[in-house]
Amino acid sequence: MKLFATSQxxxxxxxxxxxxxxxxxxxxxxxxxxxxxxxxxxxxxxQHMVFFVGPGNNGGDALAAARMLAWAxxxxxxxxxxxxxxxxxxxxxxxxxLQQQNRTxxxxxxxxxxxxxxxxxxxxxxxxxxxxxxxPLKGLPAKVVKHINASGATVVAIDIPxxxxxxxxxxxxxxxxxxxxxxxxxxxxxxSFLLPxxxxxxxxxxxxxxxxxxxxxxxxxxxxxxxxxxxxxxxxKDRRTFAHKGNLGHALLIAGSYGKMxxxxxxxxxxxxxxxxxxxTHVPRLGYSILQxxxxxxxxxxxxxxxxxxxxxxxxxxxxxxxxxGLDTKCNTGxxxxxxxxxxxxxxxxxxxxxxxxxxxxxxxxxxxxPETILTPHxxxxxxxxxxxxxxxERLQLAIDFAxxxxxxxxxxxxxxxxxxxxxxxxxNSTGNPGxxxxxxxxxxxxxxxxxxxxxxxxxxxxxxxVFLHGMAADLAVEESxxxxxxxxxxxxxxxxxxxxxxxx
Length: 505
Ligand SMILES: NC(=O)C1=CN([C@@H]2O[C@H](COP(=O)(O)OP(=O)(O)OC[C@H]3O[C@@H](n4cnc5c(N)ncnc54)[C@H](O)[C@@H]3O)[C@@H](O)[C@H]2O)[C@@H](O)CC1
Ligand SMILES: [K+]
What we know:
Elements: H1 6-19, H2 24-42, E1 49-53, H3 57-70, E2 76-81, H4 89-101, E3 105-109, E4 123-127, H5 139-151, E5 154-158, E6 182-186, H6 199-202, E7 204-208, H7 214-219, E8 224-227, H8 229-235, E9 250-254, H9 261-272, E10 278-283, H10 288-294, E11 299-302, E12 320-323, H11 331-342, E13 349-351, H12 353-361, E14 373-375, H13 379-385, H14 392-406, E15 409-412, E16 418-420, E17 426-429, H15 441-454, H16 459-480, H17 488-493, H18 495-504
Parallel strand pairs: 1-2, 1-4, 2-3, 4-5, 5-6, 6-7, 8-17, 9-10, 9-12, 10-11, 12-13, 13-14, 14-15
Antiparallel strand pairs: 15-16, 16-17
Helix pairs in contact: 2-3, 3-4, 8-16, 9-15, 12-13, 15-16, 16-18
Bound molecules: ligand NAX and potassium ion.
Potassium ion binds next to strand 4 and strand 5.
């Protein structure tokens, strides 16, 4: 799914109105009816609801929804923010319709009025501002937002929590943004919803399809995408009837050191569960029996060192190389990695964990990275590779620049993992859950990405598909137990089901 800046969404709305064609007010009616469906499905029949209405079409949505709900619910109150200027035409028409219906108390809030009473048991429907917000809220709108946030009521935001920008919120006043429990957002999640600092504002968010015109969505260009089932399914290749392990890729994984052999085992499992033909895992001597006992499907390549990686094997037989899980950052290991990169190998690579930490200490290695390299930092590792940032939006911009400048696919791990590609596109992942914040889940991902690279997936496709499957496997695992109890090994165990579910979708 494409993701757009709010200014682009306004253009898609306009195109829909002109080319469907549908009148502005009817599109608003369609949008409002999706809100009403959700609310009726989730609210008790006697729920008291307080609607807050701003001057634009976001307020118009709220007024239309209040009218539709007033037929079903008795406890509805509407407060209109009076900023001393005209409401938008469609909002005005919806105000007239609500007045004509005559079932709802409508009041105005201006600079002199007391703030309305909101009980903690109420639902607040936030229709103050949506995608037309042009600057941070101040004065009366900010006062109303703070009053709502302090009420303890359940807040349902229409389209965007009022006060939140659709993209960059670096200059925003965090106290003047609605803290919603749920955001019912139209057609597309907004980019700011996918950044960690905005989670307190959006709460959980739900996309409401309002049937914007597919031609407009197709024509409008964007660097931002959301990997849904459809995207991931398209990337997944079928296995051919005459496939054999010799043509499904041979992966080399360099992982593990004294005390961190589990990382090598988990990454090996992830790799072998992702469809690769053969896997060789290169480990220090002490890891030999651990590896062979834990995962007999992997072949072992043994380092000359007892304790750590120091020297890679001949790379000729391998289709892709993964390096990093449990590697440690000792000098000898660093020298070993450097020697390997200086071989100017032209094999796709995935670098994780201590591989990234070594890269951060030796930034001159960046130019040695082969084409089709994937780096998989979490925010801390990314800060070491670049520099610390103040917020997720800045990190996102930095990741996109980093991927373009260095010609690598950068997998910035976290909720909605962002995959920045050398072509300037950025793909947010839709699967996964907080249970994945557990030891070893990154090692499993490295293994999956390595397995896909070895099978011939391009680095960008491997990253998008691998991250999706990794999250999906974790979601399936959590369905059977809980986020708290999720082990990285549960992710590998559910990878099979993830592949099957994706194929069936
Ligand atoms: N036809 C459409 O365009 C559709 C729009 N929809 C709704 O319309 C919304 C967008 O509507 P609008 O473009 O009217 O925008 P908003 O409803 O966000 O409000 C814009 C108004 O607020 C004012 N404003 C902006 N920032 C302000 C600030 N910081 N302080 C005080 N006033 C400020 C603007 O001058 C303008 O009058 C969407 O979020 C969505 O809820 C939906 O009804 C679907 C269809
Ligand atoms: K809103």
